[in-house]
Structures are given as C-alpha cells and as structure tokens.
Write a structure and sequence with these properties.
elongated, 269 residues, 11 helices, five-stranded mixed beta sheet
C-alpha cells in the first residue's frame, strides 16, 4: 500500500485523527461502524495482537522504518499517512512525540458481563468514572496485578477513548471488560459467587489489609467516581465496605492509585 503524504488536514483519510471526537468515533447509534485510535508503537502492536482490525496508519516520516516498519509489515494493505515533522506540527499545532504512531481501528465486538465473570476470580466494577486517564490507569493496574475482568456502569468513560487507550498501554486489549445494564451488576456478581466489596471512606468498616477478606475465592471490588465515590445505593448492596488505611492528614487516594493498592492486596495468592 503506498504511503500518502499529508499536505493539509482536509483529506478524508485524516478525518479519524483530526476531525472526529471520541464520541463520534464511538458511534453509539451503530457501534459496529465505530472506530478507536491506538497511539504509540506498543499500543498499536498490542491492539493488532488482540485481533483489532486496522483502517489506516498515521506516523512521522522517521517512523516509517524501525517500529513503524514492523507495524506496516503486520498490515501491508492498510494505507499509511505521513509527513515531515515540520509539516505535521504546523498542521496539528503541536510538536510530535518521538514515537508518534497512530492507528485508526474498527471497534471490537462488545463483550458481555457474563463472559467477563466466567473465568475471573477478581473483578473490578467501575461506577461513574469519567476521567479517561483514570480508566486507562485502572486497566493497566488490573492487567499487572491480576484483576481478571472489569465491568463498567453506563455512566463510565469508554475504555477505548483515545486517552484511556494511551494511558493503559494496551491493557484494554488484555483485560476482558464490558458495560453493564442500567439496573447494575451487583446482583449478577453475587449470583456468580462473588463477594462484593465497596471501596469507600468509612471509619466503621473493614480495612483492606484484613486477612478475613482473602478467605473468599471470588471477589468483586467496586470503585466509584473521582469526586463523590460510590453511590449510597451501591454501598447498601455491597457485602462489605472496605477502606485503605491512611497516614494522618491524608484522607484518600486518587481512584486509579487506590485501585492499584486494592488489586495488589486482594490478589489471588
């Protein structure tokens, strides 16, 4: 497939990278036609390895060899857009990172909560987490620390949001995930044998290092929004409320940092 030089951003091939928002890429009305953007050689290679279908590539001219050549060899029929650094910087308004490689890909088929829970012994349930960087970081921690699946409430950020995919370093293609229905996933988790833990700032509750928590074979950890945490309705349905013991003067951690601590402490031994 020939390499196409970008002279301006009006070319229709450039639309996924510069003209479409993440919401437009996702295409809620017709998800089967939706796209997402993978950014960086490692992330692109992870997506390709997971079977995601590439539509086009956009890379610095210097990246056509090296890591870029490896990616091109894996998808030889995919068009490649490129340009020199000065031209691309002038068009986009910012200097490009050294490893600037982007790939527009078809969204993979949506997973189901049942498939996420099928083989996992540790599952995270994200409720209303809207910051893409936090969602991406939670996925990265889940992949690294043995959380076998992630469920997301309908109000959560899309895990294939461009920034979430970049932050997770490809973990979104490794950890099974699915959105839940509006009626929530807690009854489903309990029916599947999970002990449901809600991570919250409560004084009269279990601490995360309580050895009793590890007596359960299957654990689901609920994580709430960045500002208000889990809803009272969700907390009322949890089997236990747990908190991370904090040093004096600090009341909480960012939700992504808290997830990493919890995943490590609750990991399958």
């Amino acid at each position: 497939m020939p390499v196409l030089e970008i002279a301006d951003l009006s070319a229709p091939e450039a639309a996924p990278y510069f003209h479409l928002t993440d919401a437009q890429l996702r295409s809620r009305q017709t998800p089967e036609k939706g796209l997402f953007i993978a950014e960086g050689p490692k992330v692109v290679l992870s997506a390709l390895g997971a079977g995601c279908q590439p539509i086009s590539l956009l890379m610095r001219r210097k990246m056509l060899t090296g890591p870029g050549a490896e990616i091109r060899a894996l998808c030889p029929d995919v068009p490649v857009l490129t340009g020199d650094d000065d031209t691309l910087a002038a068009l986009t308004g910012f200097r490009l990172q050294r490893s600037w490689v982007l790939c527009a890909m078809k969204r993979p088929p949506m997973g189901t909560p049942e498939r996420v829970m099928a083989s996992a012994r540790r599952v995270a349930l994200l409720e209303g987490i809207t910051e893409p960087s936090n969602v991406g970081a939670i996925f990265r921690s889940a992949a690294a620390l043995g959380c076998g699946g992630i469920l997301l409430s309908p109000t959560c950020c899309d895990p294939l949001h461009r920034r979430a995919v970049r932050v997770c370093m490809g973990a979104v293609f490794q950890v099974p995930w699915a959105f839940t229905g509006a009626d929530g996933a807690l009854p489903m988790l309990k029916a599947a044998g999970f002990r449901v833990l809600g991570l919250a700032l409560r004084e009269n509750c279990l601490t995360l290092d309580d050895p009793a928590l590890l007596a359960w074979d299957k654990i689901a950890l609920c994580l709430g929004t960045e500002d208000t945490g889990l809803t009272e309705q969700t907390l009322d349905q949890c089997d236990d409320i747990v908190r991370i013991p904090m040093a004096a003067g600090i009341d909480s951690l960012n939700v992504a940092a808290a997830s990493a601590v919890a995943f490590w402490q609750l990991r399958v031994r």
